[in-house]
Amino acid sequence: MPQLSSGGGDDLGANDEMISFKDEGEQEEKIQENAFTERDLADLKSSLVNESEINQSPNAAAVRRGQQSEQRGFPDKHREHLDGVSKQQDGGMYKSPAYPGYPFLMLPDPYLPNSSVSPSSNKVSVVQQSHGMHPLTSLLPYGNDHFSPSPPHLPTDMSQKTGVHRHQSQDLSGYYSLPPGGVGQITPSMSWQSQPVYPGLSPCGFRQSYSSNLPSASSYSRFPHSLMLGTSGMHPTGIPHPAIVPPTGKQDHDQYDRGMYVKPQEAKREKEPKKPVIKKPLNAFMLYMKEMRAKVIAECTLKESAAINQILGRRWHALTREEQAKYYELARKERQLHMQLYPTWSARDNYEAGLSGVAGEKSKADWGKKKRRKREKQQDSNTDNSL
DNA sequence: GGTCCTTTGAAGACT
DNA sequence: AGTCTTCAAAGGACC
């Protein structure tokens, strides 16, 4: 496996990459190890952005991320530099322009049987082989069956759909040709348990205000994990998918318990069958959160999601590029699968209506209120900054 | 019971 | 084209 910069330790710890964490007053951010992970992260993100948006507007994406990152203390003034550096250090991981598409297409696909390495896979092995199930197995709760190559129930020509403009997906047959448990082969370097992100320190780096006195004993048992996801969320095609929400009835996974169902009473009240709500596919960070939430809860005896998410956000930044790449790849596959399952779906479907009538009964007025609140909030912050 | 909080990323809406 | 906004998950806190 080509050595990535993470091991080099050179150029460690651009100081300003830690700004956002320092504000928290946490010691962990001072650890050097994090410094290089931060850098790696920047590299990864840059690479991912460059690759995934290569046909779009890399600059726009970079700008946007730059803005966001800046807010999050993830300075992008280094990004250009990092891009250049990463391409050199990657040993080829992202250097080849021969693959205008997603970078991971060059990677040995852990989803494939034998985890066969693509011809170009000598460039990287982001994924090492493991012997057991990958923790991320849980992130793809779909039954393995529907990962069979070229599911016959899927439209063969997705381009037939109209009204939705989506980039043409690549042939997914390879991506979803999974052996039983194949998804779980991704693995290995994901040893969060053995490699605490903030070694020597409490894994719980959250604001004091978020600390909880709640007992931790129940944390794990209570936590709904996607691993436990059953075959709920059945798509009309017969494909179970977590993104789809049946119009009636209760799915057996907590994932669908909240804000996604027509309540029984409502279901009765509404005789017209509601259109199943198809949720957005989860992005990389969401997948990561789902995977790691239980762990954080157990470690930190926290239950408050806001606090947990803060921790997860920091851990996400502390992940190495390889670790993050797995989630980005998973998210990409998730999107592709989602796209194939629901070719006419658009994120817009869940806009404005706010999943109206499903659970939240959000009205457009509510949506507008929320929008207004958010705007006001931003204005407030701007005002504060200007002072 | 509804909304907020809090995170990142994707995508649609808006300017 | 660039920026802004919403939504995705989660569950306690708050009104």
From TrEMBL:
GO terms for cellular component: beta-catenin-TCF complex; chromatin. One of its GO terms (molecular function) is DNA-binding transcription factor activity, RNA polymerase II-specific. Residues 47-59 have a biased composition (Polar residues). Gene3D superfamilies: High mobility group box domain (1.10.30.10), TCF3-CBD (Catenin binding domain) (4.10.900.10). It is found in: Nucleus. Keywords: Activator, DNA-binding, Nucleus, Repressor, Transcription, Transcription regulation, Wnt signaling pathway. PROSITE patterns: HMG_BOX_2. Residues 278-346 bind DNA. SMART domains: HMG. InterPro entries: Catenin-bd_sf, CTNNB1-bd_N, HMG_box_dom, HMG_box_dom_sf, TCF/LEF. Residues 1-11 have a biased composition (Gly residues). Its main location: nucleus. GO terms for biological process: canonical Wnt signaling pathway; cell proliferation in dorsal spinal cord; endothelial cell fate specification; heart development; midbrain development; positive regulation of cell population proliferation; rostrocaudal neural tube patterning. CDD domains: HMG-box_TCF7-like. Transmembrane segments: none annotated. Residues 19-43, 73-84 have a biased composition (Basic and acidic residues). Residues 278-346 form the HMG box domain. Residues 1-95, 358-387 are annotated as: Disordered. Belongs to the TCF/LEF family. This is Transcription factor 7. It comes from Amphiprion percula (Orange clownfish).
